[in-house]
Design a protein that fits this description.
Elements: H1 2-8, H2 14-26, H3 31-40, H4 43-72
């Protein structure tokens, strides 16, 4: 339980977490950056940023598909 409390007090802000999640979605991460992020990211921020990123990704794909269908007809 103390580990969870300690993890939620980590230093990186939500914006820095969003940046790390974006680069992870993009697929470009250096090993040392990944290790640094894992040591400093707040797990609550990480979960929220991942959910928001996933939702935005799905919405973007749906909009792109609708645009492609509209242009094809």
């Amino acid at each position: 339980m103390d580990d969870l409390k300690e993890a939620t007090q980590r230093k990186l802000s939500f914006v820095q977490t969003v940046k790390a999640v974006f680069w992870s979605f993009f697929g470009v991460r250096k090993g040392r950056d990944h290790d640094r992020d894992m040591a400093q990211l707040n797990p609550v921020h990480l979960i929220l940023a991942g959910l928001i990123g996933g939702i935005l990704f799905v919405v973007a794909l749906v909009l792109l598909a609708k645009l492609a269908i509209r242009l094809a007809t």
